[in-house]
Every structure is written in structure tokens, then in C-alpha cells.
What does this fold into?
Amino acid sequence: LIGATETQPGHILHDDRDRLIVGAFENHNIPKETNLAAAKRFVEIYNASGKVQCTHDENVGFVRWRKLIYNACYNPVCAITGMDTARMRIYHSPIEDVIRPLMWEVWNIAKAAGHQLPDDIVQKMIDCDPDDTYFKPSMQQDIEKGNYIEFENLVGEPLREAERLGVPAPQLKIVYGMCKILQLRVMEKKGVVKLPQKDDPTRPILEVSQGSSVPS
It folds into this structure.
């Protein structure tokens, strides 16, 4: 489901059609044929209304990395800056200074991981949101609502893959660090993090554990 914005409590603006790509989760304890059959059956059920576009794609890794070109870049940067994707394109410099270089970092990580994305995917992802709705990605909406953000899945995982493969990703690392700061701020507001008193001699260091929303 894409292009959904909660304009006010209980009011959802869905400015793009429902498009879903489904692939089987690789489980070595289940025969591949069983996984594929279940995924294809889900696609049939989802398409039954005739109002949506649901397709099956066996190349789950390729599809996930293609989506990360958007989600590892626009999503966190919009959350950090408080600026929607349309304004970034209108002002131009946010795209050229931040979004485009960040997307190419993710593109290079995907390539090193064995997923050759099309050369034009970066520009397509930059332009994919409609200009007239001033769309806010999910992480930006979550921050504005005071909710936790899913930065470990969208930013942390590609960054860890880059580190594993030896692919430079300095900008992605900065974005990841800033997302951790945002998450800590949300945790403090929710009372999950308790700051030490000024006269506490231990002064423990609080940190967001890797892959977790819980401070360590």
C-alpha cells in the first residue's frame, strides 16, 4: 500500500492506487514449491476485488533493494528534516545535495549484494510521488505523531550490508545516526528512557541497541 497520508485523525488521503508485489519468504524447512504456491494463492485472493494491482515476483531481493532506493533515502531524510518529497523537488538542492547521492549509495550496495538495479531507477524514485499532494513518507508521519520510526529495517539493514560487503556508505551512516537520535527523542517523550539525575555519579550512557527500539 503506497501513497497514504493521514491528513487528520481518522482521515486518510490515498493518492495512489493500491499496488502490491508479493514474493515467497525463503524458509529452508518448507519446500520451495509450497512457498511459491502460497504466494501465488495470496496474489489471487488479493486481486479478487478487481480494484487493486497485486503481482507475484520470485526475485524478492531485487524488489526489496529497488524499494530501498526510496525508503532508505526519502523516508529518513524527510523524517529528519520535516520536509515532504514535493518540497524537496521544488527546492531542488535537497535532491541534488542529499537525496540523489544517498540513493546512489544504496544503488551501489545493492549491486555489491548481487542485485543490478536499472541505471534510471534513481531518477524514477526521485520523481515517483505526485507533486500536488506534498506527500510525507511514513517515517515523517510517524515522527510528527510522536511514534517510533522503522529506521532499523529501512536504513540499518542496508548500512550493515554495506559494511559486510565493504561498500563505502558515509552518507547512509550519518542518516542512520540521526535516525537513532530521533528514536531516542521519541523514547524519552514516551517515558521509555529515564534520564539520570544531575547528581547521579554513575551517569549511565543510554543507547539504542542495534536492531531494537530498546535502550541498552
Q: What stands out?
A: The first helix runs from residue 32 to 46.
